[in-house]
Fold these 2 entries.
Entry 1:
Amino acid sequence: MKRGFLPVLVTALFFCVRPPLLPAQAADSGGALPESANGEDTAVEGFATETIVITAVAESLKAGASAATARVDADMIAASGAESAADALKLLPGVHLNTNGTRSSIGSVSLRGSRSNQVLILIDGVPMLDPAGSGGYDLSKIPADTIECIETVKGGGSALYGDGAYAGAINIITKSGESGRSGHVRYFFNSQEGHELKGGFSLGSKTVPGLSGHFSASILYNPYDLKIVGGDTITDAVLGYAQWGVSRITGRYEIRYRSFFNETYNVEQIGNRLSSLSQSNTLSWSIGNPGEKCRDYTGQFALNFYNLQWTPAGAGFTDENFSSVLLLKNSASFAASGERWALNASVGGDLKTELLNAYFAGFLHRTTVSPTAAVSVAFSDRRGRPVGVFDAGSRLDVMAGDRTLVFPSVWGGFSFYFDREKRYGVKTSAGNGFRAPTMSELYYSYGSVTAAPDLKAEKAAHLDVSFFFRILDSMELSAGWFYRHETDTVYFDNNTFRNLPAADFNGAEVSFLGAFLLGKDSIVDLNLQYELNYGIYSDGTPFDLNHRHIFRSLLSYRYGEWFSAYVRTDVYSGFADIKPFTDLSAGLMGSYKGFFLELGIKNMLDLELRYHNYTSVVPRSWSCGIGYRAE
């Protein structure tokens, strides 16, 4: 572990030179207390330029200073050449993408060596849960053009988000309407992913201040064959995505409606047919200062639908699963302050109902009630120097269905600042996470897959310690260690689900983010990451991501609005059953008076991924995009 850590740490420190101050960094508050009383971190310039308010019950805790959080914004996503949310996640440390190389293939996400169904995916604060699925969500279908920013919380996040945030959570914040008028359209061709047409526009009302709407959509047609793990060949025929919404924002309140859907139609050569459709509708609201002591009141109502159809070759029937998630969440926050402290507290609750109607399982349901509470306190000394931030939160999930499940979860931590400007310090956090088995794992059996009604919920406890050091406001270096202990992990073995007794995971992360000013308009963004994960089950059961090393780098150059280029590298090694491989991508982007041209190449090396004696070919592909964007 030390041998892998030191070279990367030295490399990161080598790049930590003191560049000229960026224009947006000239002013530094230098106040006695953190900029936000709830301990929110100031983002690194070039990677995040503004604070995005996300509706969540434990909002003050979710963005707390002691959380193991990471964030990337729309500018950095565009500079990296990312085409989907899955590509954008490669910019964040501790995130691993499980994919077959193209966006039209099935993709999933793991955090710090976890399984994908142990990571909760949220879009605009709403959990993307599918009772009929494994608990994961395919992020390769969400176009990068629709993303405002992505945040990750690594470690047990159940006190924040409840069921599913076992090893952490990923929250994707999508773009909303703008006050003016803007639009874009582009055609994109990729030699492995086919033909794609993207477009979108937003409109603002002149007669009603604060009222705006937006619409964006993309459709991908892929006529190419894709080799997947196991040797089967899949042709991904159609993939569609659309999002629309309307919002009204004033000085005191905000109300927003958003809706989006994904549709995929797959055809296998061997005759099996698979199609899926998902749709999410969300209404959110926020009222500022509704009472004398209440700082704000927020809420969300969400209704998600999932439909999956599978027609086995020669079987003579179609297996159709329909599932939905109904969610209602409300919270109120309060603030208080003294001479050397500032406090934020929030209380609220969720009401969630999951429904599943499957061919072999019949109709199943589960309802969860979740009261929550969170507190965050920022401290300063007598001279007004920031000392640190303390965060804590708790949540109780009570699930009722065919059986009753009760899960208490807590989370807390402390951040220490060693200077007045909070440029360097130590963050610590501890908590627990859980994941209730999905209804399909409990009751849905088909063919050689056997469900297990007696499965216990997965539980985990985590500890996280990290050091951060900011150079000016344009660069940040962080290094941390984490430990996660799991019990009753759900494992699929010999076509049957079972619980494993325990597992222990250790890991370390080093990351460096920097923005360098080379001229009046020229900026170079540098992103270096290294992570090491090691896990072992107590009964000797092999773990697929055991002893994993990942090194990532991104170098992008932006010259005003005219020209940008990027080179992105991912190096994987140390897998228990997977050969080491390298993913190298590069691209050029240019624009003039609204017209733009993009050229890129992915997987520049011939790659072959070997996994459990199966071969998955990760194809090299080139792409060309052309379009127009009017502001």
Entry 2:
Amino acid sequence: MRLQQYTAREIKPCGWLKRQLKIQADGLNGNLDKVWRDVRESQWIGGDAEGWERVPYWLDGFIPLAYLLQDEDMIQRAQKYMDAILNSQEEDGWICPVSRENRKTYDSWAVQLISKVLTVYYESTGDERAYNALYRVLKNYYELLSSGEISLFAYGKYRWFECCIAINLVYNKCHEKWLCDLTKILKEQGADFEKAAELWKHALNKWTYDTHIVNIAMMLKSEAVSCDLLEEEYTDMAERFRETLRRYNGTAVEMFTGDECLAGLSPIHGTELCAVVEQMYAYEQLFAYSGDAKWAERLEVLAFNGLPATLSDDMWAHQYDQLSNQIACYRLPGRPIYTTNLGDSNVFGLEPNYGCCTANFGQGWPKLALSAFMHRDNTIINVLPVPCELDAAQAHIAVSTDYPFKHSVTYEIDAREDFTFQFRIPSFAKNIRMNGQLYAGEIYSQHIDGNAHLTLQFTFEVEPHFDKTPGGLFAARCGSLVYAVPIKYKKAMREYEENKVERKYPYCDYEYYPESDWNYAYCASKLERVEHDINAIPFSSEHPPVTLRVNAQKIDWGLEDGYELVCSKWPQSLTPLAPPEEIELYPYGCAKLRMTELPMKNRQ
């Protein structure tokens, strides 16, 4: 029996997590309907701009963000879009902005995506209009697919399982067999990733759906969200796929290279931002189905490293592609370094390379917040120890913590009914103490009596260390945080208009140019952890909340052939250029220019 997630009506973010969500609300995602034509004038609300994935992508993050923050202005703006979409639904249930005669050639990925939006809106509001509309959308989709009037192709074929988020919601309420039949049709017409997996072992340097990084990131949850509907055994297929992806395309921070298709073991190839947030969501769903702690721990690594690294501090700008080792972010002249993307792909901006990430990145932090707690029967599980409050039927639980920057979590529990409280203990935790007493175990579990009022304080230690990366270099890590050599930089702001899209401050583009050394090799294995005050910006690029100190040495690393500001894929030489020195490492998510994967010299 899968774990159930709480809604934005039951979870309240606090502390650094609330500040992060507020930065998002004040930044690009919270204002996209005001500044970006593809959302502001979309066909979804009667305009003439893009009428496929961009408004649904945006709403998928904007809706839970609005309700988590209880921001009345944002709630009203979300309501405007949802009212327009609900009111435009056709008599037969079709809801996407395309004429009846053009449905056959309209990639129904948009149907799958808007069904997710209706699901998150219903869960956030309880608005029965959304559930009724969703039921009709799915019934219409079933009728069109089963009759052969439409079929899956392009993205819809490779993302068929996305519809299962909505199908599970409706099936759990009405238990009608046609929903299972719809799932079977979707799988039959959908892509077979088992066959595609062989292609993941070698970067193809061409664009294909089979190696498209976002398709793959989404796919990891496919078995977890569909197997019950299909009456199939759960086999942990995602673990097998992840192992292949990590072995041949892995990075130091749980991501896989994909710029935009799988790019092999290279710290100077990137990972698309859409893939980061979709892989986070996949891991959330995998934990919800399996209850396996490995997915929650991997989710932390993605969320606390890969997500903030690719966003500016104020969240007005983002990269399409982030690189493990990026010594500059600028428009590459001539031939791009990326597998299939354009030369502006790791510029921080409004819509570098392509606008999908502009619309889609907003789901990352809100859905992480919604995954902080889950429940099954009469058991409440704290999945992620982030600062928040849960107001559930059985209890009010307040979580006070600065995790992952510090390693203490306090739970204030006010019970209303008897229940079992559990939380996951990270695998890397040492010297674990519960209310001062030593504790051993992977899961803490305690029965709580109704009307009980108690405080649980969980503390632990974490040892910083080096991990060998899939590419054979080394990355520093402490707990869920990966660390990198930060590179000081200057920004160059670019305001311009292109393809009728205006870019002006604060939603303009920025290029980052290095102003400090980056060509280091580690020369000692000892790492010293140093805590600092947590800034108003949790993942601040100027004031990181925690750092590591380590000895390193400048080497003759070299530049990639043909580029002035792209480091070589691997060091050209370990020849020292200076004596060893102590340097300070920043969390990966704080270091916008960085060297994450480094060689190790004279390890001691």
